[in-house]
Design goal:
Domain Carbohydrate kinase PfkB: 4-298
Function: Catalyzes the phosphorylation of ribose at O-5 in a reaction requiring ATP and magnesium. The resulting D-ribose-5-phosphate can then be used either for sythesis of nucleotides, histidine, and tryptophan, or as a component of the pentose phosphate pathway.
Mean pLDDT: 96
Strand order of the largest sheet: 5-4-1-8-9-10-11-12-13
Order of helices and strands: EEEHEHEEEHHEHEHEHHEEEHHH
Bound molecules: adenosine-5'-triphosphate, alpha-D-ribofuranose
Number of helices: 11
Low-confidence stretches: none
Strand content: 15-25%
Oligomer: single chain
Keywords: ATP-binding, Carbohydrate metabolism, Cytoplasm, Kinase, Magnesium, Metal-binding, Nucleotide-binding, Potassium, Transferase
Organism: Staphylococcus caprae
Pathway: Carbohydrate metabolism; D-ribose degradation; D-ribose 5-phosphate from beta-D-ribopyranose: step 2/2
């Protein structure tokens, strides 16, 4: 099978991690055993690293600050064989930052400062037009302006390239973006935020699928954490179960899922369930390691474990 050509349009963040026994209550002070650690992060960058490590031919369109905080992340992009021609630099804004707290139980909270990410505009995306036209799939998330995503998706749609939206973090979205989206991949919270349907069982998932079908989206995946992934097309729908592992930090589980899914998916979507299974496998390795990009596995690691 030839490698998928994937363009990711999205954010790059420096992730600042703190490990805590439990989340503090409002007003409470807690001691921690380890100083803050820094890792490469950002939903776009994580998905690009995942796609690259899982052997898709990956191009990443993003914007970082000129202060050089993202230099170590760009080195990792190169190590994952990602095309870095469209990593742009903001004159005025710093590289994005995320402040992440992880508990002993593996739960996290994340605060994101957008910085340079929020200056990525339609004109910037136009620089990557040729890469988008030649891609099999274009993927975006919501840590950059909607204007940039819509431009990438418009170019993609004009050239028959499949568009994939990961609506994370959860915000309200214009119908104009949903109507440019072929495949949507929210987690449960994000799905609920967009559809207004609270997900308690598979019937709720089906109703959520219908909500997105009515907005012109043809394929709906909802990631369900340790339960796995629900998918729905016009022809079939069910849950592909996750793998039972001990999760120590789920940061970037969703990003690994998307990078893995898009690296495996056939252009005609004929192997949808197989691609979801592979993505469940890859993200089950991510949740067993700490950090975002640091925890994303390579193709060899996934196949050594599961195939
Ligand atoms: P995050 O925001 O933590 O990166 P997310 O909320 O976007 O993640 P999830 O639905 O939590 O996404 O997880 C994505 C995929 O990762 C799941 O569909 C599943 O395959 C895998 N996964 C997540 N948590 C676990 C777990 N505890 N055990 C096994 N697999 C998991
Ligand atoms: O999805 C995980 C990512 O969300 C982290 O790497 C952090 O940067 C936030 O954007």
């Amino acid at each position: 099978m030839s490698k998928n050509k994937v363009v990711i349009v999205g954010s790059t963040n420096v992730d600042k991690f703190i490990n805590v026994e439990r989340f503090p209550k409002p007003g409470e002070t807690l001691h921690i055993d380890q100083a803050q650690q820094e890792f490469g992060g950002g939903k776009g960058a994580n998905q690009a690293i995942a796609a690259g490590r899982l052997e898709a031919e990956t191009t990443f369109i993003t914007k970082v600050g000129k202060e050089g905080n993202a230099d170590f992340i760009i080195d990792d992009f190169k190590e994952a064989s990602i095309n870095t021609d469209y990593i742009l630099t903001s004159e005025n804004e710093e590289t994005g930052q995320a402040f992440i707290t992880v508990t002993d139980e593996g739960q996290n909270t994340i605060l994101v400062y957008g910085g340079a990410n929020m200056t990525l505009n339609a004109e910037d995306v136009n620089h990557g037009e040729q890469a988008i036209r030649e891609a099999d799939f274009v993927v975006a998330q919501l840590e950059i302006p909607i204007e940039a995503i819509e431009q990438a998706f418009k170019i993609a749609k004009a050239h028959g390239v499949t568009t994939i939206l990961n609506p994370a973090p959860a915000i309200d979205l214009p119908d104009s973006l949903l109507s440019l989206t072929d495949i949507i991949i929210p987690n449960e919270t994000e799905a609920e935020r967009l559809s207004g349907i609270s997900i308690k069982n598979e019937a709720d998932m089906q109703q959520t699928g219908d909500y997105f079908f009515e907005r012109g989206i043809s394929t709906v995946l909802i990631t369900l954490g340790e339960q796995g992934t629900y998918f729905a097309t016009q022809h079939e729908s069910h849950i592909v179960p996750a793998y039972q592992v001990k999760a120590i930090d789920t940061t970037a589980a969703g990003d690994t899922f998307i990078g893995a899914f898009v690296s495996r998916l056939e252009r005609d979507l004929s192997n949808l369930e197989d691609a979801i299974r592979f993505a469940n496998q890859a993200s089950s390795l991510t949740v067993q390691r700490k950090g975002a990009q640091a925890s994303i596995p390579t193709y060899k690691e996934v196949t050594a474990q599961y195939q």
